[in-house]
Amino acid sequence: MKPLLAIKKENVDLEKQVNRLNNLFNAVNSTKLVLLFLFLGGAVQVNAQDRLPFDQGKTYILKKVTVTGKITYNEQTIVTFAGLEKGQNITIPGEEISNSIKKLWKLGLYNDVNFYVDKIEGDSISLELNINELPKLKDVKFVGIKKGKLESITKDTELKPEKIVTENLITTTKNYIENKYKKEGYYNTKVNIVTTQDTTTTNHVNMVVNVDKGQKVKVEKITVKGNTQFTVSKIRGAMKNTKQQSVLHIFKSSKYIKEKYKEDLTSIVDKYKENGYRDARIVSDSVTFDNKKNKVSISLNIEEGEKYYFGDIKFLGNTVYNDQLLGRVLGIKKGDVYNGVLLEKRIADKSSPDGEDLTNLYQNNGYLFSTINPVEVGTANNVIDMEIRVIEGPLAYFNKISVVGNDKTNDKVIYRELRTKPGDIYSKETLIRTIREIGQLGFFDAEAIKPDFENVDAAAGTVDIKYNLVEKGASQIELQGGYGGGGFIGTLGLSFNNFSIGNILKKNAYRPLPMGDGQKVSLRLQASTNFQTYSFSFSEPWFGGKKPVSFSTSLSFTKQFGYNQSYRTDKSKSMNIFSASVGIAKKLEVPDDYFVLSHAISYQHYDLNDFNSALFTFGNGASRNLAYTIGISRNSKGNNPIFPTYGSDFSLTGKFTLPYSSFSGLNYGNLENLEDYKLKNTINRSNELDGNGNIVQIGDYIDNNGNKVTDFNLAAADRAKVDQKKFNWLEYYKIKFKAEWFTTLYGKLVLRTLGEFGYLGAYNQGRGVVPFERFVVGGDGLGGNFMTSNENIQVRGYKNNGSLSVNGNNGDPIYNKFSLELRYPITLKQTASIYALTFVEGASSYNDFKTYNPFTLQRSAGVGLRVFMPAFGLLGIDFGHGFDAPQGSNVKNGWETHFIIGQQF
Fold first, then answer.
1. How far is it, in rounded angstroms, from Cα 669 to Cα 764?
2. What is the CA radius of gyration of the chain?
3. Higher pLDDT, 808 or 817
4. Buried-most residue among 445, 569, 829, 852 (CB within 10 A)?
């Protein structure tokens, strides 16, 4: 018997099958005759006298269903999919078989579904289900696509092994790839997809996707007719994405993309509307393709119309805000040149979610359901009278607030950051602030944070908000190795940025570590042949769990070995540095809740054992640094901490030690004149004479030349003893100020503006400024001196190690810096955030305020690239050109390459 398709059958064949079905029920013990159970869907017409109605069918007990054909699924599984069960009553013909066909077809796994009568025994019936499964994908090969695009195209088309291959999949894939390349200017892209049967696996096919993208289609010429108010160049300039070929178009190529071209036509009309030409329109446009040149020519015909002005502007329906306030927000007055684009932005600025417009004025204060419509009510003598019609609606309240997508981070960590709380009056501003706060946590993809409005009920005045989050990697490991200081230096660092110390004793929390409470734990080990450093830090952003008071603490220990006369490491000579700190920081509510007040106490202990270095003039002794740091900061950057697009970050900090000289009773400026601090001979010189012919004994006073003197007043000062006394407890104060702004200039182009200042001072001029906590200016700004706590200040275009500091690598007490940086994102996906930048900056470093001049700067400019991946951390490269000479030179510095390298997992 000829198999009967369940769907897609012509009328003649259907009529033949119906006749066979009628004859079937007159036969006895027939052998595998075809049974028609068609899903007609009302689209196929059959002669009434030939059709066997459902109500004339006979009811049987289903004894068995045998599955045949091209199948990979278990036979019983397919029967279950069909909704059939042994022993059930089934009418032949009837709805049961029709419903089974529908169920199997909806699965999208088959291209052929047929039922046959296998055997009839009394009131029992056995059926055969003959189906052909659609083939599955075994392997896919792309031809003509660069490796850089393969991953994204494969992901977007979902062409992966075991994918069901349908005609729809092939068509969709072809259209997707063609459109993707057309959006990049390859307007002649052709895609051919070929499938072949795989010989090694049943019912599988191999796919080859051949892509011929051709050449980019360029815009050869843009001509404009009908323009009198704007020049052709200005109209071309309004077309941001479609540019005529020119050597001047560096940042925008002249490729033709249909969708972008249509947007640019709207931009031309908007330019006219911004300047009063309300009725301006493009009467016609044509795009002519030259196949030989692979270029297009664009012709525009513009009708400009008359220039209009705003007349009377009235507000109707407003009760919450008076006309004066609404008028100030609108910012348009009678007599202003008509600007339709500005009017739209002042009503609702779609380009800025937190813009200062009328819609946000209402929605930031609870009126979610408000609508504001500008209506032209009169036009005379090119003057347009307007009515701003306001429907305020009822106050709206947040009802249910939920978060999804946080698979690792505990709910409490997110919910404590939410500004949208059930029962509060709805506020769009609060919603945007919540998105920022979640993004600043650093645990989620800031670009993917999406609040969904659910159950928006104007009658009840409530709305549910669901935040959709995508987690990203938070734990990191740092592995570095290299040669320096005469030996191999190895670094191992572990950083867990979403740790849960509360679950550290719970075995089931180790997946592989207890995570999810938002705490940060860092461990770091660095070692070489001549030094070892161990450090630990911990921070809890919500100390106590009830208020946004962060707690942090850190411990570190460093052991530095000296060198012998052969410049080999001598472990009998060492300096031990122990450091500890503890701090708290609290979010304030005044002046606003972006402010944070922080306090910290830090302690460092230096213990020298026959260790001589440029840092200390004494080789044996100790020095201590106990300091209190207070800071106030305001950070409103958002939303993405990797690539902020708005907001600012200001910080002012002061670091203070105790003024020991005020209560020690010592005159530190006169120490070198006291007898206890005079230089004495400490070596046996009994067999030699000094420069004056005297024998020098151990304990004799000597001058700077080693000659014996009888009066201690003539002896040189013992610099080691003097400095040991001065630096026994370090005494200083340190002030730092930093301000940076982020401004979106156009589209995704962001300007970062930065200013910095630092000053290290002394309470007692007799003690002087300590050789610690200084500013080392110039270079990439990475790291710092763990021995002196000096800070490296980045000034690209100049060498590292204090090339712009008066005292070189030892650092200076004063510096200032200014920087402008343009950033443009290449991609901000969760897997990788990449942006390009160009910068100009300048800085200077000074010994004291007598020589300080904030406008005398060493300047530089350059370009760079930043890549942030959760698996590798932040990587970057900058090419900077120093326009001025560094310290100690009269030749400009020229080009420098700076790397930011870290390996993190």
1. 9
2. 40
3. 817
4. 445
**pLDDT average, residue stretch 53-75:** 78
Sheet with 397-404: list strands edge to edge. Answer: 397-404, 462-468, 450-457
Q: Where are the beta strands (DSSP E) in 162-280?
A: 190-197, 204-212, 218-225
Q: Looking at residue 487, what is its pLDDT? A: 63
426 has a pLDDT exceeding 60: yes
Quick check: helix, strand or coil at residue 176? helix
The β-bridge partners of 454 are 464
For the chain, what is the mean pLDDT? 85
Calculate mean pLDDT across residues 123-151.
86
Question: What is the C-alpha to C-alpha distance for residues 461 and 393, in angstroms, rounded to an integer?
Answer: 9
Rounded Cα gap, residues 639 and 647, in angstroms: 9
CA 305/CA 341 separation, integer angstroms: 17
User: What is the residue whose two structure tokens read 């909704």?
Assistant: 83
pLDDT of residue 872: 64
| CA proximity to 879, closest of 867, 894, 858 | 894
End-to-end Cα separation, the chain, in angstroms: 64
Res. 134 pLDDT band, cuts 50 70 90: confident
**How buried is residue 390: exposed, middle or buried, by Cβ count under 10 Å (0-12/13-18/19+)?**
buried
* Main-chain dihedrals φ then ψ at residue 28, nearest 5 degrees: -120, 135
Judged by DSSP in three states, 871 sits in coil
Q: Enter the tokens of residue 614.
A: 């440029």
Spatial neighbors of 167 by CB under 8 A, at least 6 apart, are none
In whole angstroms, how far apart are CA 722 and each of 86, 465, 621, 713?
103, 68, 12, 15
Q: Which residues contact 242 (CB under 8 A, 6 or more apart)?
A: 219, 222, 254, 256, 257, 260, 261, 264, 298
- Work out the pLDDT band at 6, boundaries 50, 70, 90: very low
C-alpha dist (Å) from residue 443 to 480, 493, 551, 644: 25, 19, 19, 16
